[in-house]
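Lab manual, section 2.4: Encoding a predicted structure.

Procedure: take the sequence of the chain (144 residues), apply the prediction step described in section 2.3, and record the output as structure tokens. A sample record is shown.
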Amino acid sequence: MSLIILIIIATILYTLFDIFVSKASKGIDANLGSVIFNGLGAILPLIIYVFYKFSKGVKLIATTGSGIIYSILAGIAIALFSILLIKIFEKGGLPYVVPLIYGGTIALASLTGWLIFKESVSGLQILGIAIVIIGIGLIVFSKM
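Recorded output:
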């Protein structure tokens, strides 16, 4: 499957995640909600992994120590983010919260890749990041 198709599917699924978390935030404790969706988020990939691991002809990427460490750190980050996201949605709606969080994520992750991990970034990508940051500012300004 092509990269763009995978990105479109991931975007749709993450959008659904945000919508469902936003709606759940009005009727569930943030910790319990996080347990439910992070638990399912762990069980489903584990089932798929085990299926692929024991299927003949399916080659998995080799697991390394750094892969495990970064996965643990990502798990800690997503668990804390999940709790905070429910609390944020209790106070703000989708049109305000989602662009700020994910726009901020776009800017911070892109700058981290560029400045810390020395990944290449084109001038057009830098312009795109700047536009995202300007968009975040406009959204924040609209609520003042």
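Check your result against the sample. Residues 92-144 form one domain.
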